[in-house]
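hey so i finally got around to running the thing on that chain from the lab meeting. sorry it took forever, my laptop kept dying and i had to restart like 3 times. anyway pasting the input first so we r on the same page abt which one it is
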Amino acid sequence: MIGKLDILPPGFKVQDLVTEYTVYPDEHRITSHTIDFKLADIDSEYQFTPTSDGKTLLTFTQTSKQKQQALVEALQKGAIRETYITQVRAVNRALGLAPMPEKRAAG
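ok and heres what got predicted. didnt touch it at all, straight out
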């Protein structure tokens, strides 16, 4: 999966974030790892646990190891937040819980 990280301030190059997902259906778990991201190595895990009332509890953990000189903390937090949101959307689509996005016409 390739995502665009466009939360960087003006003057910064938009980054393509290439992420590999591995699904472990028997363990109700999905892991992800950035393959080609210039700013950091990001590893994530989604653990799905059924609850007694028929719902599902999602436990998300993520580690990020910075590759470049320290960025502004607010920028780092924004990047981590954006990758989390993007990954949850991708997981929901993969599980059939959300529709695939419509393709945009070239303009």
